[in-house]
Design brief:
109 residues, four-stranded antiparallel β-sheet
């Protein structure tokens, strides 16, 4: 993972083991619309985490991307459609499943 200090936001939470792990949404709202270059999901612990990334545009449209990261495989760069990267006003992530107790982090750049 490169850490060049270009984070727009970092979302993080602890994930409990189970199919409904976490379940709560963590989000950040930007004062002005931003352009996102990439979004990374990182898992900490022994298992994996699965969740939903939401990008809300200035027009109110929400693009949802599902993601699954293995804690042993390092940082996963999410495949975000080019059309969803500009004019973003809110980023959210909800963990929906975790194979072990651990934690996750979403880095928005």
């Amino acid at each position: 993972m490169r850490d060049d200090g270009d984070e727009l936001a970092v979302l993080a939470a602890v994930a409990d083991r189970g199919e409904e792990a976490g379940g709560s949404e963590i989000s950040v709202t930007f004062e002005e619309p931003v352009t996102i270059r990439r979004v990374e999901l990182e898992c900490f612990g022994d298992g994996s985490v699965e969740g939903l990334l939401g990008l809300t545009s200035a027009a109110g449209a929400v693009d949802t991307t599902s993601a699954r990261a293995s804690c042993t495989e390092g940082v996963l760069e999410l495949d975000i459609p080019e059309s969803s990267r500009e004019g973003v006003t809110k980023v959210s992530f909800s963990s929906v499943a975790s194979t072990e107790k651990g934690a996750w982090r979403v880095i928005v750049r």
